[in-house]
């Protein structure tokens, strides 16, 4: 473990796009429009978790997710994963917040430190290790903006919680919660995402989507405009045969995704706690890795379906909004 770099992560971009160039950010068209869902979510804010679990709502999220996935994978054949390989996927793309409206930028004294996801009107999900250093009074979040440094709305943090079984040395149970002072107003650019079901099995070799503002390459600059990329899940038996220390991987509370035998898009320094989404459902949290986008070193994510994690998260977020007592 001493040789392993357990650090904050986000999206590594293989081919960096210039936001000032001709590229239109993904999600800026009407094809990826959460406006209708946002209006319905706002009307069901007092019962948002049940609303997100409605079959019709789940289908709408899945449809919009698949549109984003199609755009990300429609670059060119040589940038798409072929066969049954877990290698190259697709480079990160400039992405409008409207395509991933649950994305959060967590900040310490206004400086971006991590990512996160909106799960209710007052609760945000992130990584436990993002919450170890700062007090809640020193934290804030930016929502609703594609830009890391401006736009959207800023919210103050009331309380933050680290999973009681989190182990900092190994990153086991790496999940945390942030509670806001003021409820969010849902819109096409600020919207919660449904959490994966308890004990749900995660299929291997399936494309998921990661997003955030982290470093564009290992040791390089961070993104100023939101990035997203497809990244494939990796079977646990393969992950434990990779270059990662197999003893560091806890199959219960972690899963792997990304590069296996070649460099590929990956999560990197700058935005641990950010979302990894599959079929419109939040399945994990960016947790740790060794370097960024190195061949044979996949990224490791917190498994939100693990009962010990799922139960703890839901014990908090199911509490009534008006309950302002410490948890």
Explain this structure to me?
This protein has 327 residues and is an alpha+beta fold. The chain has one domain: Beta Barrel (Thrombin, subunit H). Helices cover 15% and strands 24% of the residues. The chain has 5 helices and 15 strands. A hairpin with a 2-residue loop joins strand 3 (103-108) and strand 4 (111-118). It is globular and about 45 Å long. The relative contact order is 0.21.
Task: Map the helices and strands.
Elements lengths: L10 E2 L22 H9 L4 H6 L1 H18 L20 E2 L8 E6 L2 E8 L4 E4 L12 E5 L9 E10 L13 E5 L26 E6 L14 E8 L1 H4 L14 E4 L8 E2 L7 E4 L2 E8 L10 E5 L3 H11 L10
Antiparallel strand pairs: 1-12, 2-10, 3-4, 3-6, 4-5, 5-8, 6-7, 7-8, 9-10, 9-13, 10-11, 11-15, 13-14, 14-15
Summarize the structure.
By secondary structure, the chain is of the alpha+beta class.
């Amino acid at each position: 473990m001493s040789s392993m770099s357990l650090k904050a992560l986000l999206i590594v971009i293989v081919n960096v796009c210039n936001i000032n160039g001709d590229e239109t950010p993904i999600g800026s068209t009407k094809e990826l429009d959460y406006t209708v869902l946002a209006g319905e979510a706002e009307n069901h804010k007092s019962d948002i978790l049940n609303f997100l679990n409605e079959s019709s709502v789940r289908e709408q999220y899945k449809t919009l997710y698949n549109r984003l996935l199609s755009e990300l994978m429609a670059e060119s054949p040589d940038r798409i994963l072929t066969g049954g390989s877990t290698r190259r996927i697709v480079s990160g793309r400039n992405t409008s917040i409207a395509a991933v409206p649950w994305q959060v930028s967590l900040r310490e004294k206004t400086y971006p430190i991590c990512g996160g996801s909106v799960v209710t009107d007052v609760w945000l999900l992130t990584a436990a290790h993002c919450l170890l250093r700062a007090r809640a009074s020193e934290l804030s979040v930016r929502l609703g903006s594609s830009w890391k440094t401006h736009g959207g709305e800023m919210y103050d943090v009331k309380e933050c919680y680290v999973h009681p079984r989190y182990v900092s040395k190994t990153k086991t149970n790496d999940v945390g919660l942030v509670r806001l002072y003021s409820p969010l107003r849902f819109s096409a650019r600020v919207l919660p995402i449904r959490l994966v079901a308890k004990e749900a099995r995660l299929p291997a070799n399936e494309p998921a989507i990661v997003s955030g503002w982290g470093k564009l390459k290992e040791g390089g600059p961070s993104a100023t405009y939101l990035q997203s990329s497809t990244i494939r899940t990796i079977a646990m038996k393969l992950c434990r045969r990779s270059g990662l220390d197999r003893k560091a991987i806890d199959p219960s509370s972690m899963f792997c995704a990304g590069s296996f035998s070649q460099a590929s898009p990956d999560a990197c320094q700058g935005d641990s706690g950010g979302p990894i989404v599959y079929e419109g459902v939040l399945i994990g949290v960016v947790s740790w890795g060794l370097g960024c986008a190195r061949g044979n070193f996949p990224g490791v994510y917190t498994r939100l379906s693990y009962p010990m994690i799922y139960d703890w998260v839901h014990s908090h977020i199911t509490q009534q909004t008006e309950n302002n007592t410490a948890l």
